[in-house]
Design brief:
The complex is a heterodimer of chains A (249) and B (308).
Chain A: E1 2-6, E2 9-11, E3 33-35, H1 37-51, E4 57-64, H2 68-78, E5 82-87, H3 94-108, E6 112-116, H4 127-135, E7 138-149, E8 152-159, E9 162-169, E10 172-176, H5 188-194, E11 199-203, E12 215-221, E13 230-231, H6 235-244
Parallel strand pairs in A: 1-4, 1-6, 4-5, 5-11, 6-10, 7-10
Antiparallel strand pairs in A: 2-3, 7-8, 8-9
Helix pairs in contact in A: 2-5, 3-4
Chain B: E1 2-6, E2 9-10, E3 13-14, H1 16-26, E4 30-36, H2 39-46, E5 53-57, H3 67-77, E6 83-87, H4 90-102, E7 108-111, E8 113-114, E9 119-124, E10 129-135, E11 140-144, E12 160-164, E13 173-180, E14 193-197, H5 204-207, H6 211-217, E15 220-223, H7 225-229, E16 250-254, H8 260-266, E17 271-276, E18 289-292, H9 295-307
Parallel strand pairs in B: 1-4, 1-6, 4-5, 5-12, 6-11, 7-11, 14-15, 14-16, 16-17, 17-18
Antiparallel strand pairs in B: 2-3, 8-9, 9-10
Helix pairs in contact in B: 3-4, 6-9
Classes of the chains: A alpha/beta (249), B alpha/beta (308).
GO molecular function (chain B): electron transfer activity; flavin adenine dinucleotide binding
Protein name (chain B): Electron transfer flavoprotein subunit alpha
Cofactor (chain B): FAD
Chain lengths: 249, 308
């Protein structure tokens, strides 16, 4: 069984994003970029499934600029077997990404596609669900536990009031939540090995997918800053302030 | 124009967040709602103020709001609607993007403000930026943040209920079980006061130090990702970028350092209180009132004071 894991290159999660002065977006030039943290969890889960013998091959794919190769190499250093880069200068929306991934799924024939539940740049939380819809596959979103058993995949999902279990026929889509696993660090020998693993580049235009954006960004702005308030010396003073100044209790 | 709101439910109740989605939809036109489950839910939906029609998906396949059948049903109903809306909770985020893909629409998640019928404001980068986006799709599919829209009154409406027939969808998923926390406390997303703990709580046992304070304030209990990852509390209590987004009147953070991922979930609260041993903790930069000190000493003192 083959597993496909899409990964996205995003602004590193430790960097505080800065809105561009012209309000056209968030500054990414000269900013440290890394693999989307949720995608690291997805890669880890796929690699673990292969290590357990539930899968035979893990293929990672990224859609983006040449530098997304670094993200793919990181995924291969974590244990993915090979990589595909769909090359484009655009930053496609989840609908376009899902359409591109669908063409790759049709070509590669995976039994499972594991994605991060959301990317920490656009916070869309949509690609996995959209790919599942386009393929007519079952979807186990916000997964905190995944078991492949007898041609099905059982998924524990984090929901608003607790946890839910669903069982999906294979092939299926999984989207990884924070607590699915703790991704490993790539060791130096594995980073070296990853440089020799196959990485295929496909120009996005060759896939024949309409990637025209549906959303126009009118503006991007900084949210209203919250000002630091005051420090109080005691619980008594705090309760007095909350009662008489903030009038909130 | 007419909007269709998917009303999600949990434990036999329509979620309060869904009532906020109704309010958002009233800004877009006439409001119809779709509710999947038993007749009591449809009855409750018909009472919501501002709803003019209830579509009741009574077939058993919809009872657990599984994405595969429910998205197919939404697609079959979508023809008459300009907007399809849901609360940005676990159900809305699971079902709506799937329906959007089937409709060839790019969804707009986590809307915090409606500019006009095509134009919406949504946070990106964990709320560090607000993007205003205009959709060119014929239909708009959006999820809305409950913290940004008041809940529609649950009473006062008298909408007609119409049962909708089931439609075919791929039989690829099966509901197995659900574990809901049986807390007697108010719902985290709609509580007036939230008392939250972080890594500084120390352990699952010590996290309960917040219980007496939550009791005296009638507050919901929340947590930072660090506290959830450490196993102090279950995942449904997480406040932050990938957890619950809350905006109560009063948010009290104990032993929470204030990572941007956490601030993304609570910085729109009206009044923020922080108690932390570390005077440099970033949480103090957004707190209206701070106490530098040991939370295990401060919390009992607060309880005593509040009882006076």
């Amino acid at each position: 069984m083959k597993i496909l894991v899409p990964v996205k290159r995003v602004v590193d999660y430790n960097i505080k994003p800065r809105v561009k002065a012209d309000g056209s977006g968030v500054e990414t030039a000269g900013v440290k970029m890394s693999m989307n943290p949720f995608d690291e969890i997805a890669v880890e889960e796929a690699v673990r499934l292969r290590e357990k013998g539930a899968a035979s091959e893990v293929v990672v794919v990224s859609i983006g600029v040449q530098q997304a190769q670094d993200t793919l190499r990181t995924a291969m250093a974590m244990g993915a077997d090979r990589a595909i880069l769909v090359l484009t200068d655009e930053s496609p929306e989840p609908l376009a990404v899902a359409k591109v991934l669908k063409t790759l799924v049709e070509k590669e024939g995976p039994s499972l596609v594991v994605l991060g539940k959301q990317a920490i740049d656009d916070d869309m939380n949509a690609t996995g669900q959209m790919l599942a819809g386009l393929l007519g596959w079952g979807q186990g979103t916000f997964a905190s536990k995944v078991d492949v058993v007898d041609g099905r995949v059982n998924v524990s999902r984090e929901i608003d009031g607790g946890t839910e279990q669903v069982s999906l026929a294979l092939p299926a889509i999984i989207t990884a939540d924070l607590r699915l696993n703790e991704p490993r660090y790539a060791s130096l020998p594995n980073i070296m090995k990853a440089k020799k693993k196959p990485l295929e580049t496909i120009p996005a235009a060759d896939l024949g997918v309409d990637m025209t954006p549906r959303l126009t960004v009118v503006s991007v702005a900084e949210p209203a800053e919250r000002k630091a308030g005051i420090k109080v010396g005691s619980a008594t003073e705090l309760v007095e302030k909350l009662r008489n100044e903030a009038k909130v209790i | 124009m007419t909007a269709l709101v998917l009303l999600d439910h949990e434990g036999g109740q329509i979620r309060k967040a869904a009532l906020s989605a109704v309010t958002a939809a009233t800004r877009l036109g006439d409001v119809h709602v779709l509710v999947a489950g038993d007749a009591a839910l449809a009855q409750a939906a018909s009472q919501i103020a501002g709803v003019s029609k209830v579509l009741h998906a009574a077939d058993a396949r919809y009872a657990h709001e599984l994405a595969e059948p429910l998205a197919a049903l939404l697609v079959s109903l979508a023809g008459s609607y300009d907007h399809i809306v849901a609360a940005a909770g676990a159900t809305g985020k699971n079902v709506l993007p799937r329906a959007a893909a089937l409709l060839d629409v790019q969804p707009i998640p986590d809307v915090v403000s409606i500019v006009d019928a095509q134009t919406f404001v949504r946070p990106i980068y964990a709320g560090n930026a607000l993007a205003t986006v205009r959709s060119s799709d014929a239909k708009k599919v959006l999820t809305v943040r409950s913290a940004s829209f008041d809940a529609a009154p649950a009473e006062g409406g008298s909408a007609q209920v119409e049962v909708v027939a089931a439609v075919d969808s791929p039989d690829v998923s099966r509901f197995e079980a659900v574990q809901l926390s049986d807390s007697a406390r108010p719902d985290l997303e709609s509580a007036r006061v939230v008392v939250s703990g972080g890594r500084g709580m120390g352990s699952e046992e010590k996290f309960h130090a917040l219980d007496p304070l939550a009791d005296v304030l009638g507050a919901a209990v929340g947590a930072s990702r660090a506290a959830v990852d450490s196993g102090f509390v279950p995942n449904e209590l997480q406040v932050g970028q990938t957890g619950k987004i809350v905006a109560p009147e009063l948010y009290m953070a104990f032993g929470i350092s204030g990572a941007i991922q956490h601030l993304a979930g609570m910085k729109d609260s009206r009044v923020i209180v922080a108690v932390n041993k570390d005077p440099e903790a970033p949480i103090f930069q957004v707190a209206d009132y701070g106490i530098v000190g040991d939370l295990f000493e401060v919390v009992p003192q607060l309880v005593e004071e509040l009882k006076k």
